[in-house]
Amino acid sequence: MPAHVQASVLQRLIPMLVLLSIAAAAIPAVRPVRPDSKTINQNRSNDGKTLHHTPRYEFAYGVKDPITGDHKDQWEKRDGDRVQGVYMLEEADGTQRIVEYEADDVHGFRAIVTNVKLPKATHKQQDPIAHSYSMLQATA
Fold first, then answer.
1. 129: which of 14, 36, 70, 93 lies 20 to 30 Å off by Cα?
2. What are 95-102's contacts with CB under 8 Å, separation 24+?
3. Rounded distance between C-alpha atoms, residue 113 and residue 100, angstroms
4. Which residues constitute the signal peptide according to the record (predicted)?
5. 32-62: per-residue pLDDT in tens?
6. Rounded-to-integer distance, Cα 76 and Cα 61, Å
7. pLDDT of 89-117, one tens digit each?
């Protein structure tokens, strides 16, 4: 950008920035209201009593990109305070890393890591499009 254009832009921009900073200083600070930790993840019944919420989820996904060689899968399940899962990824050295893990409020996080040598790939024609996929069956 030519120097005379830069100077023109700065001459217009600096007064606007000064006005903006003055206006921002005049606005009172707004702090977010954090809910009481006792009300998070709780539901109330019709009679007003607190019901306890037990977190539950399960997910799984995979990615396979023949162009970059990115191939990985993950599965995880949570029921209350217990989480179980496994993820696998293909390393550049021709091995697959498999990590099986568990976490709970008694033992903390534990993982078993295994490296497996992958067989040499046969060079067959592959679809040059990357894919992502879910490894779970759809439920109605």
1. 93
2. none
3. 7
4. 1-25
5. 555 554 544 555 556 666 666 788 999 999 9
6. 9
7. 998 888 999 999 999 999 999 999 999 99
